[in-house]
Amino acid sequence: MNKAYPDGLDDHDHGAARTTSEQSGTDLDDRLQQLETALADLQSRFLFQEDTLLQLDDALVAQQNTIDRLEKMLTDFADKVDQQLHDRQGGSPEHEKPPHY
Asked: HSE of 17 in the Cβ direction (CA atoms, 13 Å)?
């Protein structure tokens, strides 16, 4: 015999409501687990990107230091070549400017 409840539902109907509630709780637990997994994935990706960005920054700094060093070497080399050309031309009277210049 079914027991009657004030809302007009019998035992069978309340059992179904409990099952739906339990399913709802299970669905909520599943959804929460999915969100936690997605959050962990996002955190992992963020850390990987942050590490990659730091590596790229270090590489960029090293490249700029190399460029600065090479520019200084090139300037020093150009100065030496100019000095050698000047020294060679200065010893030869045909390359000297006449006194009236």
From this structure: 8
